[in-house]
Design a protein that fits this description.
The chain is of the alpha/beta class and 426 residues long. The chain has twelve helices and 24 strands. The structure holds shikimate-3-phosphate. Shikimate-3-phosphate (S3P) binds next to helix 5.
Length: 426
């Protein structure tokens, strides 16, 4: 149980933990590379540790000491058959990306995860993988994990994805490493491109043009040093906190600013947020910068269309900002929120209402009439890490005390979240 009351101001510097999406990919692609991959800035959160444990089960030697990970890659064809069911825990990225890899192996496997994972839609990867000649099925026939995969020879396809999802795109591209002929994916809007960037960095033949990413099979991946930037999805909580709490000024160091991930910065600025990028570093495959954030008076905005995939995980936090901003904030085209770690349209609007906000739930988002003072409440996280963190920040600007009973779920993506938040309030 975490109890949070109104904050005075946030000041100081912070380095947020490494990017979750890039941390997963460093382990997966490091395992498929020849030689050693050394990742610095690895996120030692529960989700990424699930990925490490799955690859260890397939014979990969991985040393993890805090944020440093050394992966002894076995090459594209060096994975061993796992002796038991692979457990992805709470991690959708682990299930969906690994399924693409498993589909092309010369062995059979089964992958599953916790109660939340077993409710999330896997038809979106079963469909394209089946078109590639993979043998993959939902064990319970409900389109969800557990997934049973019989590895076999795959065929390249051109896949027109119905959703802008990096997990779907990455799954298909990773299967494409093992396919005969080229594989490409066209999405309705551009999702995060970390897989394409890292594959290219490790030597695969990957090209991107507009909304289409393509991979040629047969490339060899060669292990490299990987510097993982701070996770902008984790930085988002402190950006929001500093914007909301009067008198705040904070510096967030080395945050990833990949344009397919940084939509939140654009939206915060459109709401009147004072955010400055310093020390931009574009020398590696993933751009990063320091973010200077000062408290600001915010007004409502519209968040929609192709912006949505670039800030999908930040929408709970942005909805909270909308509730504190003057005027109306509209979030639309975001039906994907319903199939995240929880139904985030339901959980965000319910918890905002508990705090006294004026929110209308819609099929693909929310309409928030902001500017009403919020008060403390008991938050129902549904064990969703992003709900727990977003409402911890909401509590900093509310009257009275907010209680978050299952606050421990922040360990999924940010084990030191509450310590880091405290350090900025010192
Ligand atoms: C992720 C992609 C996104 C995101 C998730 C991580 C990734 O999911 O919400 O937290 O690492 O590829 P979708 O691809 O399902 O949109």
């Amino acid at each position: 149980m975490m109890k949070i009351t109104k904050a005075k101001k946030l000041t100081g510097e912070l380095t947020v933990p490494g990017d979750k999406s890039i941390s997963h990919r460093s382990v997966m692609l490091g395992a498929l590379s020849e030689g050693i991959t050394e990742a610095e800035g690895f996120l030692a959160g529960a989700d990424c540790l699930s990925t490490i444990s799955c690859f260890r089960q397939m014979g990969i030697d991985i040393l993890q000491e805090g944020s440093r990970v050394v992966i002894h890659g076995a090459g594209l064809h060096g994975l061993k058959a796992p002796s038991k069911i692979l457990d992805a825990g709470n991690s959708g990225t682990t299930v969906r990306l690994m399924s693409g890899i498993l589909a092309g192996q010369p062995f059979s496997s089964e992958i599953t995860g916790d109660a939340s994972i077993q409710k999330r839609p896997m038809g979106r990867i079963i469909d394209p993988l089946t078109k590639m000649n993979a043998s993959i099925a939902s064990a319970k026939g409900n389109g969800c994990a557990p997934l049973k995969i019989q590895g076999q020879k795959l065929q390249g396809i051109h896949f027109l994805s119905p959703v802008a999802s990096a997990q779907v795109k990455s799954c298909v591209l990773l299967a494409g490493l093992y396919a005969e002929g080229n594989t490409s994916v066209t999405e309705p809007a551009l999702s995060r491109d970390h897989t394409e960037r890292m594959l290219r960095y490790l030597g695969a033949s990957v090209s991107s043009s507009g909304l289409t990413a393509s991979i040629e099979p047969g490339s060899r991946l060669i292990g490299q040093k990987i510097r993982i930037p701070g996770d902008i999805s984790s930085a988002a909580y402190f950006i929001a906190a500093a914007l909301l709490v009067p008198g705040s000024e904070i510096l967030l160091k080395n945050v990833g600013i990949n344009p397919t991930r940084s939509g939140m910065l654009e939206v915060c600025r459109a709401m009147g947020g004072n955010i400055t990028l310093l020390n931009e570093d574009c020398s590696g495959p993933e751009p990063m910068a320091d973010l200077l954030v000062k408290s600001s008076s915010l007004h409502g905005t519209v968040i929609e269309g192709s912006l949505i995939p670039t800030l999908i995980d930040e929408l709970p936090m942005l909805a909270v900002l909308g509730a504190y901003a003057q005027g109306t904030t509209v979030i639309r085209d975001a039906a994907e929120l319903k199939v995240k770690e929880s139904d985030r349209i339901a959980s965000v609007s319910e918890n905002l209402k508990r705090m006294g906000a004026d929110v209308i739930r819609t099929e693909d988002g929310m309409i928030i009439h902001g500017g009403k003072p919020l008060h403390g409440a008991t938050i129902e996280t549904g064990l969703d890490h992003r709900i727990a963190m977003s409402f911890s920040i909401a509590a900093l600007a509310a009257e009275g005390e907010t209680e978050i009973p299952e606050a421990d779920c922040v360990t999924i993506s940010y084990p030191e979240f509450f310590e880091d938040l405290k350090s900025l309030q010192a």
